Amino acid sequence: MMVKRAWTDQRIEDILGNMLRAGVGLSAFVVFCGAIVYLTHHGRTPEDYRVFQGEPSDLRSVPGILREALHLNGRGIIQLGLLFLIATPVARVIFSIFGFAEEHDRMYVVFTVIVLAILLFSLVGSQM
Amino acid sequence: MNILEFTALVFLGSMIAGLLGALTGLGGGVVLVPLLTLFFKVDIRYAIGASLVSVIATSSGAAAAYVKEGFSNIRIGMFLEIATTLGALLGAFLAVWVSTSVIATVFGVVLILSAYLSRKPRPLAERDLPPDPLATRLRLNGRFPDLQGMRSYNVQRVPAGFSIMFGAGALSGLLGIGSGALKVLAMDQAMRIPFKVSTTTSNFMIGVTAAASAGVYLNRGYIDPGLSMPVMLGVLAGSLVGTRILVKAETKWLRIIFSAVIVLLGIEMLYKGLTGRL
C-alpha cells in the first residue's frame, strides 16, 4: 500500500513538472511574438511609465484580452501570454485535485478546492 | 528614451537580476521593483505588477526542475497555500488602498530584513522529533531521499507555520515579490522541516501565491504588457542561465555582494518612501 502511494506521488510530480515547464514555455513564446508586433509598431514612441494611469479596460479582463489578441494587437498578444503564465499555477492546482482524488485523499481534495476557489475569485471575482 | 531603447535596457537589467537571484538563491524578484522604480523611474504600481509576473515565471520554471527530485512535499505545499493565497488576496487589495509611499517604506524594510534573514545560518534540522498530533492528522509528515537512503521527518508547530505563511502571502501580494525568505523561515524555524524539503516546497508554492494576487492586479490595470514583457523575458533568461552555471560558480562572495546591494536598495526605498518621493 505504502509503495503504491509513493509511486503515485512521484508520478504526479513528474507530470506536474512537465506541465509547469510547458506552461512557462508557451507563455514566453506568446509574449515574445507579441513583443515583435508591439515593438515594430510602437518602438519609436517615447516611453512613459512615470505617471500611473492604469491599463485600458480591454487589457484588464480575460474576454477583453482575447479580443485584443485576436485583432493581433501587440499589447493584447503580450497580455494573452501573461494570462497563460498566470494560468499555469492554476492548472497545476486543478491537476492536483485529480491527483489527490486518485489517491482517495478526501481531505486534500477539499484543501486543493479551497486554493482553487481563492485563485478563481482573484482572477474573475475581483473585478469591482 | 523611446520604447525600443527602454525595452532593451529593462530586459538587460532584469536578466542580470534573474541571473544574480538564481546564483545566490535569494531570488531576483526582490531587486526588480527597486531597479524599475529607482533607476527607470517607473511608477511603483506598474513595477509591482511586472515583478509579480516574473515571479510566477521563475517559480514555475524552477519548480519544474525541483519536483522531479522528490524533495518537495506536495501536501505541505498545498496545505500552506491556503494561507499564502488568502494572504496574497489581502495584500493585493491592500495595495490598492494604501499610498505608494507606504508601499515603498514597507518594501525598504522587507529588503533589509530579507538580506538579514539570508545571512543568518539556518538551524540544523533536528532528527527524530516526536510526531505532532495536528501534523499527523493533516498527513504533513514525509520522507525524502538522503545519502543514507530515505529519511523521515515529523512536522512541528503547524499553527505558527500557517500564520507566518499568511503574512508571507500578504507581503507577496502587497509588494509583488516571492517572499521566499519568509516562507523558508516559517518552514525551517517554526515547522522544523528539513532544509532541502523546505527550499523546494517553498519554491513550488511561490507561483500559486503570486497567481492569487496577479488576478487582482490584472483586473485593476496594474499589469502593463509593454513593461512586463522585457521584465518577464529578461528574468526568465537570466535565471535559466543562472541555474545552468550554478554548479560551477563560487557563490559565497556573490551572496555577500548581492546582500549588500539588497540592503542599499532597501535603504534607498525606505528613504524615498518616508520622504514621500515615491
Question: Would you write up a description of this structure?
Answer:
The complex is a heterodimer of chains A (128) and B (278). With 128 residues, chain A is an all-alpha fold. Chain A has one domain (2-125). Chain A contains four helices and no strands. Helix content of chain A is 77%, strand content 0%. In chain A, helix 1 (2-42) packs antiparallel against helix 3. Chain A has helices at 2-42, 62-70, 74-102, 106-125. With 278 residues, chain B is mainly α. Chain B has one domain (3-274). Chain B contains eleven helices and two strands, in the order ααααααββααααα. A two-stranded antiparallel sheet of chain B has the order 1-2. In chain B, strand 1 and strand 2 (149-153) form a beta hairpin. In chain B, helix 2 packs antiparallel against helix 3 (44-67), helix 7 packs antiparallel against helix 8 and helix 8 (180-190) packs antiparallel against helix 9. The two termini of chain B are 21 Å apart. The mean pLDDT of chain B is 86. The chains are: A mainly alpha (128), B mainly alpha (278). Chains A and B meet through helix 1, helix 3 and helix 4 of A and helix 1, helix 3, helix 4, helix 9 and helix 10 of B.
Q: Notable features of this structure?
A:
heterodimer; A: 128 residues; mainly alpha; B: 278 residues; 11 helices
Secondary structure elements and pairings:
The complex is a heterodimer of chains A (128) and B (278).
Chain A: H1 2-42, H2 62-70, H3 74-102, H4 106-125
Chain B: H1 3-24, H2 29-39, H3 44-67, H4 74-97, H5 100-119, H6 133-137, E1 142-146, E2 149-153, H7 158-175, H8 180-190, H9 195-219, H10 225-245, H11 252-274
Antiparallel strand pairs in B: 1-2
Portion in helices of chain B: over 70%
Strand-pairing-aware structural class of chain B: mainly alpha
Structural class of chain A: mainly alpha
Give the tally of β-strands of chain A: 0
Largest interface: A-B, 68 and 65 residues
Q: In what range is the share of β-strand residues of chain B?
A: under 5%
Query: Could you give the distance between the termini of chain A?
Result: 49 Å
What general form of chain A does the structure show?
Answer: elongated
Which regions of chain B have little confidence, pLDDT < 50, spanning 5+ residues?
A: none
